[in-house]
From TrEMBL, chain A:
This is Phosphate ABC transporter ATP-binding protein PstB. CDD domains: ABC_PstB_phosphate_transporter (cd03260). The keyword Translocase applies. Keywords: ATP-binding, Cell inner membrane, Cell membrane, Membrane, Nucleotide-binding, Phosphate transport, Translocase, Transport. SMART domains: AAA. The lineage of its organism: Bacteria, Pseudomonadati, Pseudomonadota, Gammaproteobacteria, Alkalimonas. GO terms for molecular function: ATP binding.
Length: 251, 443
């Protein structure tokens, strides 16, 4: 099985505080990998380390390396914009721009210099179809995206990310702000997405991790406790910590 | 009572009454300016008075009732006799007269006519029945008959014969004249168009200068600069710049913009005209630049507040789609912060349009024969001196020998200035509402 992303002895500090401690992890291609762990364990920071979003937030310092297809993304000459096109990201709360549905999806494409209306139309339609939003919004493509429901908005920002045809999709608790039905739709969507993308998802919800992921990594206090196939982690965890966490005894 | 006290009701009442007091004062200000300002041009009736049995009755306009002073039990009236036809420069001393109530004749003559002349004089006279094509026949107070050439007459009306509707029409006509004509030697009858125009051009030029600078400075301060003590110190300094007295800014504008910058421009581009200065003298551009400097902190502070209010998630969302910082700022941040920038502009315009003190040093004059924008190449004359409503108000009101006219004129010019600022703000406000609807912020 081929690894898309390799996290290699990666450590991260926000000002003086260490949030990740020598993480070593491999993200298999075209699979869903779930990062689980109690609040503040560093799973979101690890996710953001994979497209270098951490450095936008606070004073941060890192050691170790993350490789995408064998290429280090922490080199000085890394083109961050290009990297983030290859490794897309969706946040916990939907954050559509106050533009039309169409302009939201076309935002990244236009940044890439796509000017042809025909190709934009095609790619917007295809992205919206992939997230199952096309039939719901095709009548109001040019209305503001803020008029959509929260669940639709979240699918819209996923569409916005996959319109760029990234290789990896990072999802930071994408369903935690949604109602059960919207959550279900997102989960189905993630399941479909893994055919074409490598998906890494941070989640607080054990059932969700068990349902949708192929691999699971359990983090605690900045350390990777264990990782492996989801089925193994959930049935025969090697660490007592993992077992306690997934059975709800702590966290 | 004790319970009322303990539940904190006194604070509600205290704060509510403070608000009420503020509102009351604002209402009083607006009411006073509006009512006094609107009175000035309303056509007043003409009265007759006779000083002695032997003299002819004269025409005049009642200005106000003077209260009886010590030793006099009769009430006195101050009347305006108008300008005289012979003396070209009638001094205000001869124009006003205090008369007793007994000298005032009860009858208001129907044939009394008020003539506004192009040179700014106002005549009160009796209309004569003979009419000719080229002259207007009048009988003046001294009893002689004169023919006034029509080309000298700007307007005339019979104040005692007017119906309410005619008065209203005259009133509007006089307002139009006031707003569109140039001032003449008599400030009470001239127009204020150059002052309105000068104020407007200066304020718009200032807005054009201050907006890009202020917005770019705020963007750097909030989006690019590192969050450390130096940024914080610069931010505090910018906030404090807003407190510099405007007259000090005027001194700086004169010393730096006019003499240093203007002087250098003259030496570089207009050496053949020296020692007569072109740009090295107070003028429109320097005034606008000085006011831009004065209002810069306002724009920076307002813009930065708008940038700070924008959720971080919007920026991250843009970065995550492969946008660079510059693309994020121009495509996501600036459009959404535009309403805040317009708020800054509104505040800046309101402040700039009302400033007078610095302008007296850097370009405003009592009377400017040429407008700063006209049909002559290069059409916009940034080096020209200009008139300004605020300064015109001061000049017409307090440098005016004719104090009787000055009082009502001050309110009228004040009303015009207030309306102008209100209109400028209203247009910016409407634009802001439009943008707000377009870029409704996410909660």
């Amino acid at each position: 099985m081929q690894s898309k992303l390799v996290v290699d002895n990666f450590s991260l500090w926000f000002s003086q505080q260490q949030v990740l401690d020598r993480i070593a992890l491999q993200i298999p291609a075209n699979r869903v990998t779930a990062l689980i762990g109690p609040s503040g364990c560093g799973k979101s920071s690890l996710l953001r380390a994979m497209n270098r979003m951490n450095e936008l937030m606070l004073e941060c310092r890192s050691e170790g390396d993350v490789q995408l297809d064998g290429q280090s993304i922490y080199r000085v000459d890394t083109d961050l914009a290009r990297l983030r096109c290859r490794v897309g990201m969706v946040f916990q709360k939907p954050n559509p721009f106050p533009k039309s549905v169409y302009d939201n999806v076309a935002f990244g494409l236009r940044l890439q210099g796509e000017r042809s209306h025909r190709r934009l139309d095609e790619q917007v339609e295809s992205a919206l179809k992939q997230v199952g939003l096309w039939s719901e919004v095709k009548q109001r493509l040019h209305q503001t995206a803020l008029s959509l429901s929260t669940g639709q908005q979240q699918r819209l920002v996923i569409a916005r990310a996959i319109a760029l045809q990234p290789e990896v999709l990072l999802l930071d608790e994408p369903a935690s702000a949604l109602d059960p039905i919207s959550t279900l739709k997102i989960e189905e969507l993630i399941y479909e997405l893994k055919a074409s993308y490598t998906v890494v998802i941070v989640t607080h919800n054990m059932q969700q991790a068990a349902r949708i992921s192929d691999f699971t990594a359990f983090l605690n206090q900045g350390r990777l406790v264990e990782w492996g196939e989801t089925h193994t982690i959930f049935t025969q965890p090697t660490s007592q910590h993992t077992e306690d966490y997934i059975t709800g005894r702590f966290g | 009572m004790r319970q009322w006290w303990q539940q904190g009701s006194p604070w509600v009442w205290l704060s509510a009454s403070a608000l009420l007091l503020c509102l009351g004062l604002f209402m009083a200000l607006l009411l006073l300016i509006t009512s006094k300002g609107l009175q000035h041009l309303w056509p007043a009736p003409l009265v007759q008075f006779q000083l002695t049995e032997q003299t002819e009755p004269e025409l005049g306009r009642l200005m106000r009732r003077q209260d009886a002073t010590d030793g006099m039990d009769r009430a006195l009236w101050l009347v305006d006799r108008g300008d005289s036809l012979q003396a070209r420069d009638s001094s205000p001393a001869g124009r006003y007269l205090l008369i007793t109530a007994t000298e005032l004749l009860p009858e208001r003559p129907a044939e009394a006519v008020l003539v506004q002349m192009y040179d700014g004089r106002t005549l009160y006279a009796w209309r004569q029945p003979q009419r000719t094509a080229d002259a207007f026949w009048l009988q003046t107070g001294t009893g002689e008959q004169v023919a006034l050439p029509w080309e000298q007459v700007r307007a005339h009306w019979l104040p005692n014969q007017l119906s309410w509707w005619q008065k209203l029409q005259l009133y509007l006509q006089e307002w139009r004249h006031f707003l569109t004509a140039s001032p003449n030697q008599n400030p009470g009858t001239g127009g204020i168009f150059p002052a309105i125009f000068g104020t407007l051009v200066m304020v718009l030029l200032m807005a054009v200068l201050v907006t890009p600078f202020g917005i770019l400075a705020a963007i750097y301060l909030h989006e690019y600069a590192g969050k450390n003590w130096l940024t914080q110190w610069i931010r505090t300094s910018v906030y404090n710049l807003a407190g510099i007295p405007s007259v000090v800014m005027g001194v700086f504008g004169l010393a730096f913009f006019v003499y240093v910058l203007g002087g250098s421009l003259d030496r570089l581009f207009y050496p053949d005209q020296l020692p007569a200065p072109t740009f090295g003298t107070p003028g429109l551009f320097w005034a606008a630049l000085t006011l831009a400097l004065l209002t810069l902190p306002v724009v920076i502070v307002a813009t930065e507040e708008g940038l700070a209010k924008l959720p971080q998630a919007q920026r991250l969302g843009s970065f995550a789609l492969g946008a660079t910082q510059a693309e994020t700022i121009w495509k996501v941040v600036v459009p959404q912060a535009a309403p805040a920038m317009l708020t800054g502009l509104i505040l800046a315009v309101a402040r700039a349009a009302g400033e007078v003190a610095p302008l007296m040093l850097v370009g405003v004059v009592k009377s400017a024969p040429q407008l700063p924008i006209d049909g002559q190449f290069p059409y916009i004359h940034l080096e020209r001196k200009f008139m300004h409503l605020g300064y015109h108000l001061y000049d017409a009101g307090f440098q005016n020998p004719d104090t009787e006219v000055a009082i009502s004129l001050v309110f009228t010019i004040g009303l015009v200035l207030l309306t102008l600022i209100l209109l400028l703000n209203l247009s910016a406000f409407l634009l802001r509402q439009q943008l707000r609807r377009k870029y409704r912020l996410i909660d």
